[in-house]
Amino acid sequence: MKIGNIDLGPRPLFLAPMEDVTDIGFRMLCKRFGAAMVYTEFVSAEALVRDVKSTVRKLTIADEERPVGIQIYGRDVDAMVEAAKIVEQAGPDLIDLNFGCPVKKVAGKGAGAGMLQNILLPDGTIAPDAKLLEITRKVVQATKLPVTVKTRLGWNHEQLSITALAEQLQDCGIQALTIHGRTRSQMYTGQADWTLIGEVKHNPRIHIPIIGNGDIKSLDDADRHFDEYGVDAIMIGRATFGCPWIFSRKELTLDEKIDVLEEQLRINIERCDTEEMRNSKKSAELCGILHTRRHLAASPVFKGIPNFRETRIKMLRAEKQDELLDILEHCREILK
Question: CA separation (Å) from 68 to 22, 41, 335?
């Protein structure tokens, strides 16, 4: 499978872009364990144009994680175009447009999945003045990088727009399309429905790669969905929390998994040890811990620990590296 000139191999697995999750340390681990493509946390176009430092930091990428995509979101055409130009200077392998985020602070303001509201006309076509089409066309024209889109099935089950929208987005010049098998109104509830994803993939007028997303919790799930729906790639999101080895065909031992989580902590602390951080009130140690502890608290490794809730709370409250490492070593001993 290829996106532009990026060769991703057969049946590749991607790490989904996720806020406060897909920082550089986590991306590098997922890449090591077999993710064919990784994405940064999604980036606000408005904040990028305003040069908000915390947003600009999200553009930092490393050669070890390539190929890597940077995803942007926003509702203003000019801001999205300007943000794409800024992102291009950061040197990713592609730019992804987020038309799928369902959370209120994004979709409620007309960005992300908010772009899907009221775009489907009664005759089943997409409104020609739909803003997401204008944004897509102009971003494609503004950059030399491959541009891709991530979206959902539609705003709700009365507005399932994806089959018509996929063709329109392709006509805008995108080079791949990721579809999450839920509507915006579903948020993350219920089961992802891959039926329409399969319909888009098998539409003879669609020639760009189609990437499926939603409820993939293991490699067995991925294999089954490749076989059943024929998608070109599969993107994994929430199942990666605290589990970067989900992409690996090799089964890790318990000790190896805990070693990886401890390494993630050390990577994040090291990555936070910058001149900017040294001049701030927040230490590199605490910064690295904040990037890591939600992964630790969500990791499936610790499911066998009795009354894990108490240990989880300790993980989420830890502010020192040694404290967090002691908790992990305690968990290791319990699970042996």
Answer: 11, 11, 35
The C-alpha atoms of residue 201 and residue 211 are separated, in whole angstroms, by 9
- Catalytic-residue membership of 287: no
Which two structure tokens, joined as six digits, stand for 300?
């499936």
Q: Where are the beta strands (DSSP E) in 82-143?
A: 94-99
**DSSP letters spanning 4-52:** TTEE--SS-EEEPP-TTT--HHHHHHHHHTT-SBEEPPPEEHHHHHTT-
Interval 62-80 mean pLDDT? 96
Q: What separation, in Å, do the N-terminal and C-terminal C-alpha atoms of the chain show?
A: 41
Q: Which of 113, 99, 1, 14 is nearest to 65 (CA)?
A: 14
Mean pLDDT within 9-17? 97
Q: How confident is the model at residue 61 (pLDDT cuts 50, 70, 90)?
A: very high
Q: Indicate which residue of 101, 172, 243, 272 is catalytic.
A: 101
- How far lies 196's CA from each of 33, 199, 286, in Å? 30, 5, 44
- The token pair at 102 is 């369902």
pTM of the model: 0.93
DSSP string, 52-88: -HHHHGGG---GGG-SEEEEEE-S-HHHHHHHHHHHH
